[in-house]
Amino acid sequence: xxxxxxxxxxxxxxxxxxxxxxxxxxxxxxxxxxxxxxxxxxxxxxxxxxxxxxxxxxxxxxxxxxxxxxxxxxxxxxxxxxxxxxxxxxxxxxxxxxxxxxxxxxxxxxxxxxxxxxxxxxxxxxxxxxxxxxxxxxxxxxxxxxxxxxxxxxxxxxxxxxxxxxxxxxxxxxxxxxxxxxxxxxxxxxxxxxxxxxxxxxxxxxxxxxxxxxxxxxxxxxxxxxxxxxxxxxxxxxxxxxxxxxxxxxxxxxxxxxxxxxxxxxxxxxxxxx
Amino acid sequence: xxxxxxxxxxxxxxxxxxxxxxxxxxxxxxxxxxxxxxxxxxxxxxxxxxxxxxxxxxxxxxxxxxxxxxxxxxxxxxxxxxxxxxxxxxxxxxxxxxxxxxxxxxxxxxxxxxxxxxxxxxxxxxxxxxxxxxxxxxxxxxxxxxxxxxxxxxxxxxxxxxxxxxxxxxxxxxxxxxxxxxxxxxxxxxxxxxxxxxxxxxxxxxxxxxxxxxxxxxxxxxxxxxxxxxxxxxxxxxxxxxxxxxxxxxxxxxxxxxxxxxxxxxxxxxxxxxxxxxxxxxxxxxxxxxxxxxxxxxxxxxxxxxxxxxxxxxxxxxxxxxxxxxxxxxxxxxxxxxxxxxxxxxxxxxxxxxxxxxxxxxxxxxxxxxx
Lengths: 274, 371
What we know:
The structure holds two protein chains of two kinds.
Chain A: H1 2-22, H2 39-46, H3 48-80, H4 85-99, H5 102-127, H6 141-165, H7 169-177, H8 182-211, H9 214-219, H10 226-234, H11 240-272
Helix pairs in contact in A: 1-11, 2-11, 3-6, 3-8, 3-10, 4-6, 6-8, 7-8, 8-11
Chain B: H1 2-10, E1 14-23, E2 26-36, E3 41-45, H2 52-60, E4 67-72, E5 75-76, E6 87-90, H3 102-111, H4 119-132, H5 148-160, E7 166-170, H6 178-195, E8 198-203, H7 206-212, E9 215-220, E10 223-228, H8 230-235, H9 240-245, E11 250-260, E12 263-268, E13 273-277, E14 287-292, E15 298-301, E16 309-318, E17 322-329, E18 333-340, H10 341-347, E19 355-359, E20 366-369
Parallel strand pairs in B: 3-8, 3-9, 6-7, 7-8
Antiparallel strand pairs in B: 1-2, 1-4, 4-5, 9-10, 11-12, 11-14, 12-13, 14-20, 15-19, 16-17, 16-19, 17-18
Helix pairs in contact in B: 3-4, 3-5, 4-5
């Protein structure tokens, strides 16, 4: 059993380890380690295409995570005061949204947006005052943000809901008892109590968007995010430069996930109050 | 004007008028009518589910009565939300804000006031409150750095710093160990006298209610059974339920055979008769229960002294200051007798199987309505 588990772990992590290892390779062949070097990192960071893709990825991830955090927190608060079958329905729908394979979300979002644009664009062309100059809606950063934001929102709702559920309800009563208005209670008690969940939700949403390839592949249009760039360059062969990019993405993602986990754990301790 | 002031002082600080609370078909409290006097220490006592917490929550403003009225200081407050009531509560599990320091927890109520008092004034009030609950210098601590007993004091300080018209205490001592609980009982009582604030306590612990309260309101299944001072309830329980809840008692079922003023004779199921005092008048023939406190019974060694009940010792439990004997008698069945340590030392301990005689003073037995 133990050997079996070991094999599973090796199988999972050796390829990742190899990528990280070969990103430090001095030579240019992916099969042969020729000494330690950071040159591929330097090259990757000096490549304008990489930097542009990175910029797009960061922008999309930040805006998507921000929108998801705002809407997701509001939704989680509303859900927590909802009762009965409606609440169970919404809860189930959120779980489903998280479980649906990325490719389904990608295709579905693509079809939905294309259909929408096909309807809206002719209408815009007619309604626009200066004919022939009407803006054309199309795939791009906005559609990426929308698709990522929706998925990240489901993550935020899950995390913030768990946080609200773990909160001591009597704190809200105590606040009201001490004379705080409902808004005062929200600002002074509820928000500080769920803040770790909100922050963790933002970080997870950001990480998801930053890492995502499948959805981005469908809805990015002419935009290139970092994972999409990696995918397209791999068709020209795996270079140590790609390894370096992959390792950087991995490092950033892991750091954010660990940070989110630490925030949640610290928050849980403060929430229970000893 | 003087008269006005006296009538105001005599007017109750809080009042239930036929107040009831239903959740769908579940009745949590029904037709509660009770006036709480200014400055008194009142306890709601009863087992869980008796409606005591509902009564407290109606005073706090967390529950609105579904029938009747709740009044604070002469004003109907049925629809006044908790945050607009001059009432503060000490919660069962304290409900201290874990993200705030001890001082910020205590200052919370003062900071909600509009206009907000100056910071220096708040700081002074917080220090005074910490002093009052004997936690001076603890203001900068975090809540989770405090022990259970200390958290209890912080919760108390957080409530009294606002000088509420009514301080509500929801089983505040339930989470403390026995010794600490006893200390806090004394402290609470002292604090109440010192501040002159009306305290309303909810508890299921009869000892706690007896030791601290001016008056106790006993509830059962959402209704008030009896309201009175601790001695009243102990000596003149309205029925078997109260006698059973307040203190320990032996009960003998029977029927009222004859009455004479507040005296009655009960015929027990076994045919034996028993004389006693009747706090609430009963008609001859009514089903009744005789209640006899274990500490009012005296045991003497040897069989059948005049006027006594011959018994055989069945069991003996040592309780420290007292020894509890379970004795069997032919006519009355088994009952408990509490013998003080000194009396036992004088007469010599009885062993299981020994024959003895049980006596009690006339009027010790109470003839109560069966329920």
